[in-house]
Design goal:
The chain is α/β, with parallel strands linked by helices. The protein folds into two domains: 83 residues, Methane Monooxygenase Hydroxylase, Chain G, domain 1 (Up-down Bundle); 153 residues, Endonuclease, Chain A. The chain is 46% helix and 16% strand. A seven-stranded mixed β-sheet has the order 1-7-6-5-2-3-4, with helices on one face. Helix 1 runs antiparallel to helix 2, helix 2 packs antiparallel against helix 3 and helix 5 runs parallel beside helix 6. It is elongated and about 70 Å long. Pfam families: MIT, MIT_C.
Length: 246
């Protein structure tokens, strides 16, 4: 394997693991665990490609250290979940980037996830409806087998026809993917939260609508939400063993 390719993998591993340590120190344990796992895999790929014994020993030592920390985090998170005390908070600052739905929700999606509840009063306007579509696409691409998505929102009294037709189209499209979309409307809904049947609850101050409008249709961030600027908001993450009864 070419030396520059190995060097590139090592650089990627260092970057991911540096992020893991930063998240770890910020007590964002579930996110840090994902980064530790990705970084460890990258270092293992480097180890396979390196022939020098001294370097191999160095990488083995590093991998062991990160694996030990990842196991400690797993145990810590499992205990907090068992005690019903798990809570993380993420503060998304004004104009921040790197907070696509994939980035935000990935740490909490597992192969056990089959059912999702979305409660958001503002799935009305065109950009909000597109946000819901992107959220559903994220779930379909993730390492889970979602079979049912429940949406509780409010009706758009000004233009209910657009909202109704858009949600009906999404319902049919999801059905073609083997996913059922259950729709319910409430005139009193205010709080915003997303619940997964693997126990995770994510409360976003602005719901799914925390992205700023792009400067134009051909501006960076128009398609890739990791490059889209955000509005300031707070994300609270909890875990419960009784999500379906909430």
């Amino acid at each position: 394997m070419a030396q520059n390719h190995v060097s590139g993998m090592e650089t990627s591993a260092i970057s991911v693991l540096k992020r893991a340590v930063e998240l770890d120190h910020s007590s964002r344990f579930q996110e840090s665990l994902v980064c530790y796992q990705e970084g460890i895999q990258l270092l293992m790929d480097v180890l396979k490609a390196v022939k020098d014994d001294s370097k191999r020993g160095h990488y083995r030592e590093k991998i062991k250290g990160y694996m030990d920390r990842a196991e400690q985090i797993k145990a810590h998170v499992s205990q907090m979940k068992e005690d019903g005390k798990y809570h993380e908070q993420i503060r998304i600052s004004e104009d921040a980037t790197g907070h696509s739905y994939e980035s935000l929700f990935k740490p909490y999606i597992s192969s056990a996830l089959t059912e999702v509840w979305v409660e958001d009063p503002y799935i009305r306007h065109t950009h909000q409806l597109y946000n819901l579509v992107r959220f559903c696409e994220m779930l379909l691409k993730a390492s889970c087998k979602v079979k049912r998505i429940h949406l509780l929102t409010s009706q758009d009294e000004a233009d209910s026809s657009q909202q109704s037709s858009a949600l009906a189209e999404l319902k049919e499209s999801l059905s073609n993917q083997g996913v059922t979309l259950d729709l319910q409307f409430s005139s009193t809904i205010h709080d915003r939260e997303i619940r997964f049947d693997n126990g995770w609850i994510i409360k976003i101050g602005r719901g799914l609508d925390y992205f700023k409008r792009p400067k134009g249709r051909f501006s960076i961030g128009y398609c890739d939400y990791d490059l889209r600027q955000c509005q300031e908001t707070t994300v609270d993450i909890f875990h419960t063993k009784h999500t379906k009864t909430l």
